[in-house]
Structure formats: C-alpha cells, structure tokens
Amino acid sequence: MTIKEAMKERHMVRKYTDKEIQEDLVLKLNEIIEQNNKKYNLSIKLMLNNDKAVNCIIKLLLAKGVKNYIILAGNESDNLAELLGYSSADIMLYAQTLGLNTWYVGGTFNRGVSKYVPDKRVIGIVAVGYGINNGIPHKSKAIEEVSNYDGNIPNWFKEGVEASLLAPTALNKQDYKIIGKGNKVKIEINNGIFTGANKGLIKYHFELGAGKDNFEWK
Question: What is the pTM of this model?
Fold first, then answer.
C-alpha cells in the first residue's frame, strides 16, 4: 500500500483489540517518528502498553483498548502545532501502510501524558494499533465549500482539495478554505486552539493529493 492509497483507506478508529504491535512494526514506527523529529526539531514519542492516553469517561463512552499511542510534542514555538499536525499526518498514513489503525485525538486526551515528555508542549496524541474494525469514511463537505480557485481549476488543485477533505480536523468541522491562483495556494483557517494542528494536517494531505511540484504555498 502506498501513502497515497493509505490516505483513502485511513479512517478514525477509537476501539482496539488486545493484539500487540509486532516488534518489526514498532521499529518502523519509531523510524518514521525519528525522521519527523529530526526534520522539524520535534519531540514526538511512541508509548506502548500504556493506558493513560484517555480518561475513564472517554474509555467508557467512546474508546476501548487504547494502550499504544503517539504523543505529539515539541518545544514551544509559533508554528509548533502546525508542524506537529503535519508530522502526525505523515506518521498516521505510514502506520496505515503497515496495517495499523489510528485515531487523532486533539481535545479529549489525558493531559497527564505530558509527564512522558518533560518540558515539552503536548498538543494531542495519536492512538495506534489494531482496530476492532477499520472505521468508516467521515462525512465530508463538497469541494466548492472548502476551496476557491481564480480561473479554470487545474486537476492538481482539485485533487489536492479532495485529499484535504480526508484529513482529520477538529470535530470534523472542515472549517477551512483553500484558495488558489496560478500555482500559488494558501489556506485560510481559524479553529481557535486547533488552528495550527488542523492547518498542518490539511497541508500534508493537500500536498499528497496535488503533488508538491505543481504549486507553491503562499
């Protein structure tokens, strides 16, 4: 499975089996995490066999079996959340190619996990493992609702917007606008505390769908 294929196959999965993640897959997950940490100066960390990711109420009402997760953390900076959102997309889609399921958790995670990454800012977690099922596609807005292109819409722009709609966003509101003119593209988004992470998630997916060589971020 390619990363692009994984983008279409990955869905939110909140309930997991007790099956352990094999050692070779753990090594691969840590490799992709380390690549992102080095590239963007982050402190993302994989936690295994640890049930502290979500609180008891969430476990009872929404989630089950979340014992492996990735802490999204780094040194405080103006673009930290965006970098973590971008990197989390890379990691989640790679995990999908390994046959694993994921759940991006930006608001209902247990803040206590920050103790595992001392002196770093934590914006969320990504649950990872073998889902009880593979999830279902989330409801998406139409392309016209989240984008605007000045002139005839090129295929790369359309494919980029379609890909962006596959990205997980806060409460799945998809409150953003991708604006294009020529080969210049920008994202307008304002989701409060989730703005940075959502922008990173959307950017990664748009790039994957559109192809980085076809445009420039404005």
Answer: 0.95
